[in-house]
Amino acid sequence: MDEPLFTNIPRDLITAPFFRRDGEFGEREAWIWLIAAAAVRCGTGPFGRPVQRSEIDLDRRKLAEQWGWTSRHLDSFLSRLAGVGFMERDADVIRIVDFDAMTVPESDEPADTSIELSSPSELRAMGVRMRSRESSHIPAAVRREVVLRDGWICQYCYATDGPFHFDHVFPRSRGGTDTAANIKIACETCNLRKGARTPEEWRAATP
Ligand SMILES: [Zn+2]
């Protein structure tokens, strides 16, 4: 095999809050494991089936065993990865979407590149609902940056269940910009409660 055994992974793909950090072999490690396993161009996957580059053959029981995970955690992790558009899967194979964009050729500097993952339909698949009057304003690159920075965690109440909105910290209706610095992930409840107020105004009005 003449394929490189190492692959560079952009830092923000590993440190994104999306990946829960629990246990010795956590989700970050699992993600690195998957990317490394998919780096073999053509050959046999970790569980003996033939695969192409970007693919990993899937044996849920053996994979859970190998990672020391419950099959429930494995299933939920794989569905979440599929939900954010990082991978597709069928019964026997996991396919990492845009694999070459997920990894950085060794010659390229710097290693910290970003990836294209959040078209509006992908964001919908991730459970992000944008208010329609806002949806066209926030550039895809900004949405992506916000999602990778905040994860699926409401930045006001720390809820982890959606639906989520992109909240303009300084309200858009009052001149707030569509920049990552002015946008946070907020659960629908917080976003609607906050309305066209700043967090300070919202706090001041909440007994
Ligand atoms: Zn909230």
From TrEMBL:
Record bears the keyword Nuclease: yes
GO molecular function terms listed in the Swiss-Prot or TrEMBL record: endonuclease activity
Organism: Bradyrhizobium erythrophlei
Family matches, as Gene3D superfamilies: 1.10.30.50
UniProt cross-references to Pfam families, sorted A to Z: HNH_5
Keywords: Endonuclease, Hydrolase, Nuclease
Span of domain HNH nuclease: 141-192
SMART domains listed in its UniProt record: HNHc (SM00507)
InterPro entries given in the database record: HNH_5, HNH_nuc, NA-targeting_endonuclease
Protein name: 5-methylcytosine-specific restriction endonuclease McrA
